Amino acid sequence: MRAVWTANAPCCGSKAPQAPERSEKDSSDDAPRDVPQDATDAAIDDAAASNRPKKSWPPPRGPASFAWTLGTAMPLNVLADYLLLAAVWGASFLFARLAVVEFGALPTAALRCVIAALVLLPLLLAHGLGPQLRRHGKTAATIGVLNSGIPFALFAFAVQYISTGLTSILNATVPMFGALVAWLWLKDRPDASRVAGLAIGFAGVALLAGGGARSGGGALAGWAVLACLAACVCYGVAGNAAKVHLAGVPPLVTATASQIGASALLAIPALWMAPARMPGLQAWAAILALGVLCTGLAYVLFFRVIDRVGPARAMTVTFLIPVFAVFYGALVLNERITPWMLVCGAVIVAGTALSTGLLTLRRRAPSAP
Questions:
Q1: With 90 as the cut, is the pLDDT of residue 254 above it?
Q2: What is the pLDDT of residues 191-222, one digit of tens each?
Q3: How many other β-carbons are positioned within 10 Å of the β-carbon of residue 305?
Q4: Residue 95 and residue 277: Cα distance in Å, rounded?
Q5: What's the confidence (pLDDT) of residue 29?
């Protein structure tokens, strides 16, 4: 049996459309003469039954029940892009760790942005979006400071002191911070279900942060956790700023200008903090993979998924990224996966899903006696 989730499920208490009532005379008059009347009546009953609200399964065990709302099943080709995108973005934490050891945090972030800009700019020009870049480039580049420059530097700092798996789980809170910023800034007041999600998500973050600060990495582990959360806040602010100031701008324009703006921000600090000796081949390979695969081409994949299934369902890739990141960290870096990390990660993902409306808590009306 295949579960079908929909992002546009009817709200609590709404009624599904019912088949119009038909009299016995209407049914007989409308039915084709070569179809038995019993068959016509059965078809009408089936149509009405198909429009009745489906019973949830498993049945609720209390006054509230979870309503899973992830949209209809993806076509296989879109699912392949979706999984590839999660795998590529999940690898970004591993490549950042391999690069930052020799380059340092700021040069790693700067090179990632520069390489991504060099990948995206030719694609933008090939699509004839040069005029759009000139028109909206300044605004998009400014937002790119929050959307790429600062977060990339903060995550590059963090992976030096906490595991890449823990970093990726904290990164999964981005939609939650986006919902919080929308509430505080855009007055997009969440319903009770989303408020509950924010509370659950932040509780999971607090539990995970406490465990992360005690899990090694020295005195800077706590600062690394805070750096990850600050990066997620930057993403949340940038997403809402783009919604206000860049509505209708092609995503490729926004992404390209973001990388250009982030590169400009990080250029001088990165030169100042440049490594004293030339990094090795492994570090250079990691930087290239980080810029080309995990930023430039990942944006192309992301836009393609958005074009096919919409932004709401495309953003759910955030929940799958930690799965790949934790796997890569354990496989390549021998990072330890603790039960505490998995439990807190599940709490954070559940809270994030609720806070963004992907999951909803619906209170069922009492059944009639």
A1: yes
A2: 888 888 888 988 888 888 776 555 555 678 88
A3: 23
A4: 20
A5: 46
Looking at residues 248-272, what average pLDDT do you find? 94
Q: How far apart are CA 75 and CA 3, in angstroms?
A: 14
Average pLDDT over residues 108-121: 97
Q: What is the pTM of this model?
A: 0.75
Is pLDDT at 231 greater than 90 in this prediction?
A: yes
Find out whether 121 and 137 touch, Cβ atoms under 8 Å: no
Q: Is the C-alpha dihedral spanning 355, 361, 363, 364 positive or negative?
A: positive
CA dist 35 and 33 (Å) reads 6
Closest CA to 358 of 325, 326, 312: 312
pLDDT tens by residue, 318-333? 888 999 999 999 999 9
Residue 268: predicted pLDDT: 95
Number of Cβ within 10 Å of residue 199's Cβ equals: 13
The two tokens of residue 54 are: 């489906």
**pLDDT over 90 at 256, yes or no:** yes
Measure the CA–CA gap between 348 and 225, rounded to whole angstroms. Answer: 14
Please state at what angle helix 105-126 crosses helix 251-272, rounded to 10 degrees: 150
